[in-house]
Each structure stands twice: as structure tokens, then as C-alpha cells.
């Protein structure tokens, strides 16, 4: 053990040795140069952009060029590598020459934003050290697979390349699983979003707005659990937005001016939400009551949709609300008439289809609501929903329409059972549920009612009367069964 103990003399020697090595190292760094294809690319770049920084002409060691950062080398190996080029806001004209990915293989950061560069964006394929890429403004094309194999990428910003020939969402980005910011604002994106969001669990900022995207939000959107900013506004996206409800870190959701439909989801777990901008879509149904109590909510736009039910009354801490252009039952907050509330429960069980929302607005179902027939006294007597392509279920809330005489939900795609409490409708004379996907057992209705259950493969009638059966083998194809004869 004693032999290992270092005395002060040895320590001093060791220190001097380290100092010498360090000075050597600094010395060698100063002398080391960018060589080979990397140097060739930088020269090529200098020749293609204008005005290139002046040191690019006056200084020979490229590592001392302004806006270029090189790797640090420990031992004299005669080579250094370009790690960063930052030419943001330099009023540059010209092009980025091709061949970048075959030469600047150690590149970590490239920023050429806010210039007037044009032409194709070069390929970055295989640049596994690349972390940040800023290529904003006025390029004209992106080669296929440009973003393949960028395993270290954290930020990709391509904003405002409005002259790009139309391209689709870069499918090859899936190797960039550490992506934090993806901004493709105004880049002429077309087509639909691929179902690959589960590759981006760290994504926090997603800007895809002002493009021409179509189609629905893919299921994997719900895997974006760290998303804080979501911008999808101003394009042709459609379908439902329930994926938002799982994004508990969401602060900004900007979805205005698309064709989103269905109800606003329950966002009660999105407690960080500050901006909820859903205006100018085709959203339907009631505004979820929990929405008005979100603690950080600051601005909300629900304007110009097909929202129904009570107008929401937001907390006074909310700075701005735009609610106009919807179908609330009243023009001020407050509960709806009970028949309206009931009919909206029915609509809810069908998933609040747009078809109903376009007409089921206001506070009086007898004033022009489609598919509803009232008598002169304003009692709802018939609901005819035949062949509307409805999905979902028959709500037990139908039982609250106590004056109902005829109910036709036939020819749709309805599932599950016929609610037991429809039997309490004492005036019901006709129930036509034919041609659906209903299952379960047909409840025991009053003897005077006509029920048509034809063509519901899994619907079972309790001990069908043998006399009414067309043939003993065709048990599932019921005709009008007068239950009084049971
Ligand atoms: C010198 O650098 C090159 C390129 O990075 C590398 O491939 C090579 O192994 C290095 N040589 C030494 C002796 O460090
Ligand atoms: C981009 O191009 C548009 C026209 O295509 C032009 O109006 C705009 O000034 C350009 N932007 C820059 C930063 O060069
Ligand atoms: C550079 O990109 C081209 C085409 O995109 C590709 O064939 C090549 O393998 C890439 N180079 C590297 C070093 O990955
Ligand atoms: C995009 O360009 C427009 C007009 O040139 C400008 O107002 C806007 O700030 C730019 N946005 C981004 C994100 O660069
Ligand atoms: C890149 O995209 C193409 C076309 O979508 C696909 O064939 C290829 O497998 C993708 N490569 C990677 C690494 O994702
Ligand atoms: C979408 O495409 C249409 C034509 O297909 C075009 O007029 C419009 O400017 C595009 N919108 C955006 C935001 O690029
Ligand atoms: C909110 O989070 C809790 C706990 O994770 C979960 O049980 C519940 O279903 C969530 N609610 C919504 C509306 O997503
Ligand atoms: C919203 O906030 C802005 C600035 O913070 C303020 O000027 C404005 O008066 C506020 N509006 C309302 C309705 O509180
Ligand atoms: C119900 O609506 C369907 C489709 O609009 C129509 O053909 C049928 O005659 C209606 N039935 C009654 C009883 O009004
Ligand atoms: C029912 O679902 C189908 C398939 O998802 C869909 O095409 C249809 O529009 C839905 N019907 C309504 C009324 O929303
Ligand atoms: C029918 O059932 C639903 C739920 O099961 C209930 O809310 C409703 O009050 C019932 N209506 C009648 C009239 O029994
Ligand atoms: C029952 O419904 C089916 C399908 O809509 C129809 O063909 C049949 O005529 C109906 N039965 C009676 C007795 O009206």
C-alpha cells in the first residue's frame, strides 16, 4: 500500500505532464483542419450562397470561419469535423448544394432559417448525430426519405416553405424517436397523417398548421402523452378529436378551420390547458360540463360549430371566449327544456351525428326538428330515424318521451339491446327496429304494440308463439308480432 501513496514531488510531475499534454492538445486543435469531402462541401456551400460570410474568404482554417463550429479533438489526428453551421437571418440568396449528408457526417446543428434560399432541400439521410435542423423559407422541394435514419434528431423546423412542391408527412421520421419539436407550418403538406405517433413519445411541440392535410387524426395520437402545443388549424382534417383527452400535458390546442366532427371530448385530465381553439369545425353535442372548470383555461373558441345543449358558462378567470354560431338551446347559459335534454341524450347514444345536430338546435323540438312528429298540443308522438346510417345504441332515455306512439329506429347500424324501460311507454303502438345489429332479449311490451324486429341477427324473442312462426327453422326472422297473442 505504501508504494501506491503519491508524494508531492510525483504529484507536481504528474501535473506538469498533464499541463504539457493539454497545451499540445490546444496547439494541435489550432492546427487541425477540416479535410476531404467536408472541406469540399463547405467550399461548395460558399460558392452557392450569397453573400457568404467574409471570413469564409479570408481565413484558411475553416474551423475559424464565422458561424461554423468544429468538433474538439484530443489528439493530433489532423482532422476535425463540422458540428454546427448557423446562418440564420443572413439575407442569403442561393441554394444549399446536394451531397451534404455524404460529407458533413458529424453535423449536429444546421440553421439556415430566415433567408431567401431556394431550390431543393438537400438530403440528410443517415446523419445520426444531427440534433437540430432549421430550414425555413422558400425551398422548392424535398427529396424522398430525406429524414431517414436521423436517430438523434430533437428539433425539425421547416416552417414557411410555401413554395415546396406538395409532399406528404415524412414517414421516415420514425427513426427520430427523441423528437421534441416538429414544425412543418405552411410547407404544402398534403395527404393524411400516418398512424406512427407512437414513435414520438417525447414530442412536446407539434405544428402542422396551414397545410392541406386531409383525413382523420390517427389512433396513435393518443400516445403523444407529453405534447404541450398542438397546432392543426387551417386545413381539411376531419373525424373525431377524442384523442385530445389523453394528452394531459396539453397547454395549447389550436384546431380551428377544419372539418372535425363529433362531440368535444372530456378534457378534465388536461389540467394544463390554456388555449382551446376549436372554432369553425363541425363539432356536435353538448359542451362537457367539466370544460368550464379547467383551472388554467385562458382562451376558448367554440364558435361556428353545431354544438347543442346548454350554452357553457366559463369561469370568470377565462380571458376570452368565442361561443357564437352554434345550436345551443338558449342564447344564454341555462338548462334546456326537458324534452330537448331527452332528445340530446338519444343523440348522444348515436354519437351526436352531424345529421341530427344540423336540425336539433334551439329549445323546442316541435319547431322544425327533423325526424320528430308532434301533435297540435306540442306532444312528441313519433320519432322516425329510419335509414339514417346511425351508429351506437337505442338510449333508455326514449322512455322519457312519455307521449310517444311510434318509434322507428329501423335500417341503421344500432347495437346492444332494446332498453327494458321502453315498456313503460304506455302509448307506444309501433316499434320498428328492423335491420339493425341489435342483440339481447326483446323486452315484454304491452299487448297492443306492434314490433318489427326483422333482420337483427342476435336479437332473441322470449318463447315466440309457435302459431306465428313462418317455419320452425326461421326463428330469427320475425315479422310483425302482435304480442297480445302471446
Ligand atoms: C482520426 O479521425 C478519424 C475520423 O473521425 C477517425 O476515423 C480515426 O479513427 C481517428 N484516428 C485517430 C488515431 O484517432
Ligand atoms: C419567399 O417567396 C415569396 C414568393 O414566392 C416571397 O414573397 C417572399 O418574400 C420570399 N421570402 C423570403 C424570406 O425570401
Ligand atoms: C446520403 O443520402 C443518400 C440519398 O438520400 C444515400 O444514398 C446515402 O447513403 C446517404 N449517405 C449517408 C452517409 O448516409
Ligand atoms: C412565416 O412567414 C410569414 C410571412 O412571411 C411571417 O409573418 C411569419 O412570421 C412566418 N412564420 C414563421 C413561423 O416563420
Ligand atoms: C422510408 O420510407 C419508405 C417509403 O415509405 C419505406 O419503404 C422505408 O422502409 C422507410 N425506411 C425507414 C427506415 O423507415
Ligand atoms: C390547399 O390547396 C388548394 C388547392 O388545392 C390551394 O388553393 C390552397 O392554397 C392550399 N392551402 C394551403 C394552406 O396550402
Ligand atoms: C383521467 O385520468 C384517470 C386516471 O388516469 C382515468 O381513470 C380517467 O379515465 C381519465 N379521464 C378521462 C376523461 O380521460
Ligand atoms: C384579456 O387579456 C388582455 C391582455 O392580457 C386584456 O387586455 C384584455 O382586457 C383581457 N380581456 C378580457 C375580456 O378579460
Ligand atoms: C320514416 O322515414 C322513412 C325515411 O324517410 C320514410 O320512408 C317512412 O315513410 C317514414 N315512416 C313514417 C311512418 O313516417
Ligand atoms: C356510422 O359509422 C360509419 C363507419 O364508421 C360512418 O361512415 C358513418 O358516417 C357513421 N354514421 C353516422 C351517422 O355518423
Ligand atoms: C330509463 O332508464 C334510464 C337509464 O337506465 C333512466 O335514466 C330513465 O330515467 C329511465 N326512464 C324511465 C321513464 O323509466
Ligand atoms: C318489418 O321490416 C322489414 C324490413 O324493413 C319489412 O320488410 C317488413 O315488411 C316489416 N314487416 C311488417 C309486418 O311490416
TrEMBL record:
Q: Mind telling me which Pfam families this protein's record contains?
A: LRR_1, LRR_8, LRRNT_2
Which stretch is the leader sequence? 1-28
Q: Which domain of life is it from?
A: Eukaryota
Residues covered by the Leucine-rich repeat-containing N-terminal plant-type domain: 37-71, 341-375
Q: Which UniProt keywords apply?
A: Glycoprotein, Leucine-rich repeat, Membrane, Receptor, Repeat, Signal, Transmembrane, Transmembrane helix
Q: How does it sit in the membrane?
A: Single-pass membrane protein
Q: Which InterPro entries match?
A: Auxin_Ser/Thr_Kinase, Leu-rich_rpt, Leu-rich_rpt_typical-subtyp, LRR_dom_sf, LRR_N_plant-typ
Where does the record place it?
Membrane
Q: Where is it chiefly localized?
A: membrane
- PANTHER family annotated for this entry? OSJNBA0070M12.3 PROTEIN, RECEPTOR-LIKE KINASE TMK4
Q: What is this protein called?
A: Leucine-rich repeat-containing N-terminal plant-type domain-containing protein
Name the species this protein comes from. Answer: Stylosanthes scabra
Amino acid at each position: 500500500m505504501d508504494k501506491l501513496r503519491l508524494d508531492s514531488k510525483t504529484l507536481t510531475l504528474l501535473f506538469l505532464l498533464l499541463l504539457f499534454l493539454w497545451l499540445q492538445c490546444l496547439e494541435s486543435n489550432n492546427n487541425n483542419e477540416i479535410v476531404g469531402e467536408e472541406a469540399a462541401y463547405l467550399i461548395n456551400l460558399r460558392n452557392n450562397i450569397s453573400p457568404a460570410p467574409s471570413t469564409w474568404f479570408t481565413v484558411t482554417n475553416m474551423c475559424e470561419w464565422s458561424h461554423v463550429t468544429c468538433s474538439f479533438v484530443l489528439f493530433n489526428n489532423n482532422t476535425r469535423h463540422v458540428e454546427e453551421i448557423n446562418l440564420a437571418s443572413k439575407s442569403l440568396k442561393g441554394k444549399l448544394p446536394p451531397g451534404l449528408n455524404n460529407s458533413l457526417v458529424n453535423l449536429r446543428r444546421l440553421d439556415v432559417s430566415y433567408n431567401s434560399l431556394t431550390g431543393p432541400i438537400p438530403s440528410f439521410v443517415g446523419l445520426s448525430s444531427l440534433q437540430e435542423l432549421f430550414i425555413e423559407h422558400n425551398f422548392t422541394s424535398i427529396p424522398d426519405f430525406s429524414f431517414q435514419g436521423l436517430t438523434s434528431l430533437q428539433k425539425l423546423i421547416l416552417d414557411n416553405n410555401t413554395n415546396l412542391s406538395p409532399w406528404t408527412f415524412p414517414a421516415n421520421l420514425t427513426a427520430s424517436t427523441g423528437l421534441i419539436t416538429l414544425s412543418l407550418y405552411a410547407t404544402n403538406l398534403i395527404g393524411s397523417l400516418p398512424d406512427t405517433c407512437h414513435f414520438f413519445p417525447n414530442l412536446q411541440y407539434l405544428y402542422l398548421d396551414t397545410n392541406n392535410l386531409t383525413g382523420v387524426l390517427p389512433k396513435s395520437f393518443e400516445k403523444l402523452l407529453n405534447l404541450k402545443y398542438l397546432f392543426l388549424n387551417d386545413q381539411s382534417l376531419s373525424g373525431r378529436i377524442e384523442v385530445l383527452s389523453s394528452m394531459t400535458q396539453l397547454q395549447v390546442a389550436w384546431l380551428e378551420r377544419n372539418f372535425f366532427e363529433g362531440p368535444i371530448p372530456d378534457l378534465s385530465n388536461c389540467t394544463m390547458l390554456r388555449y382551446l381553439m376549436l372554432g369553425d369545425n363541425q363539432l356536435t353535442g353538448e359542451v362537457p360540463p367539466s370544460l368550464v372548470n379547467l383551472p388554467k383555461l385562458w382562451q376558448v373558441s367554440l364558435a361556428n360549430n353545431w354544438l347543442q345543449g346548454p350554452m357553457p358558462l366559463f369561469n370568470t378567470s377565462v380571458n376570452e371566449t368565442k361561443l357564437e354560431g352554434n345550436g345551443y338551446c338558449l342564447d344564454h347559459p341555462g338548462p334546456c327544456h326537458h324534452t330537448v335534454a331527452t332528445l340530446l341524450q338519444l343523440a348522444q347514444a348515436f354519437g351526436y351525428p352531424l345529421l341530427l345536430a344540423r336540425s336539433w338546435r334551439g329549445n323546442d323540438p316541435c319547431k322544425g326538428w327533423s325526424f320528430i312528429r308532434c301533435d297540435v298540443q306540442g306532444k312528441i308522438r313519433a320519432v322516425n330515424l329510419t335509414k339514417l346510417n346511425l351508429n351506437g345504441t337505442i338510449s333508455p332515455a326514449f322512455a322519457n318521451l312519455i307521449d310517444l306512439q311510434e318509434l322507428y329506429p329501423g335500417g341503421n347500424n344500432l347495437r346492444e339491446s332494446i332498453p327494458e324501460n321502453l315498456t313503460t311507454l304506455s302509448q307506444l303502438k309501433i316499434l320498428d327496429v328492423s335491420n339493425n345489429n341489435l342483440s339481447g332479449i326483446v323486452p315484454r311490451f304491452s299487448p297492443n304494440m306492434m314490433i318489427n324486429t326483422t333482420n337483427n341477427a342476435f336479437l332473441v324473442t322470449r318463447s315466440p308463439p309457435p302459431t306465428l312462426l313462418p317455419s320452425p327453422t326461421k326463428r330469427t326472422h320475425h315479422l310483425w308480432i302482435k304480442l297480445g297473442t302471446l
